[in-house]
Amino acid sequence: MNPSMTDELPELMRAAVLTPEQQIILEQRRRPDPGPGDVLVRVRSVGVCGSDVHYFRQGRIGEFVVEAPLVLGHEAAGEIAAVGADVDPERIGQRVSIEPQRPRLDSPQSLAGQYNLDPDIEFYATPPVDGAFAEYVLIPAHFAHPVPQELSDDAAALLEPLSVGIAALRKAALTVGERVLITGAGPIGLILVQLARVYGAQRIAVTDLDPQRLALASEFGATETHDAGAGTVAEEPGFEVFLDASGAGSAVRSGLRCLAPAGRAVLIGMGAEEYALPVAVIQNRELTVQGVFRYANTWPAAIDLVARGLVDLDSLVTERFGLADTQKALETAGDAAVLKNMVLPDQ
Fold it and tell me: What is the pLDDT of residues 275-291, one digit of tens each?
């Protein structure tokens, strides 16, 4: 047995597994042992992401196809239960938020500080890599980020979608006094609203089809909300920054038309693989349109924002489920009244 592992740990663990037939079954699996540089995390809370729901319902996202049993879940937090060689055993018992990826540290992208773009990265719950709907998971020690006691387990898990928002705002280069349009008021959209407020935006407009989510956007700091089905937000271009959290082609096209000359757009939501864009608008206004893929070097900022009370993640939680009810958590995650379902693997 690893000398940096307590003898109280069970040899087996439970995991909620997605089958290729798109069913969730509860399995007993051998608990993994941490290798050099890794830590074993006892998982306490996992958020259900839209990508988890997509794999559950469709069996694929683009080129990533569920062809073998797969453990979903990548928004995770817990406590370190064991450490591998070269990791300080004093970390055992430490509460951590998991940055759920394993890039090659010597890839050109990693060496450039953009490790999220490593083409050979292993990311939780992306076939064939298992995720965190399990009692224990492994992660490189440097991606197990210590969290302060004032952060709940749920908030520690939701630092992952907050990191998506931080990465997007960094791409957008939003500055004090600018005007921002956010399309989509789901969890990511509501996180973007909070971040835009923290960054000092003077105008934060949000569009969505659901009036309840628009009301939440106002509570989180939106200065105005609009029914996405009622047409364009602005009679004339009035925003420096456009953030799409919907993944809908119609929302992207409308948002781009709302950008002022030299405006910046960041596409965050994942919908169709392709859709038409207003190229003349992009060219004539010299708009910048870019994507964001996950995140890199965001966790320290995310932890600080939540610890200081500048971003509220706990209010995003709708319902909590035990591991045996993971399928129900996935089935109900798409309901209009649900923002964020959480799975608690130790229950």
Answer: 999 999 999 999 999 99
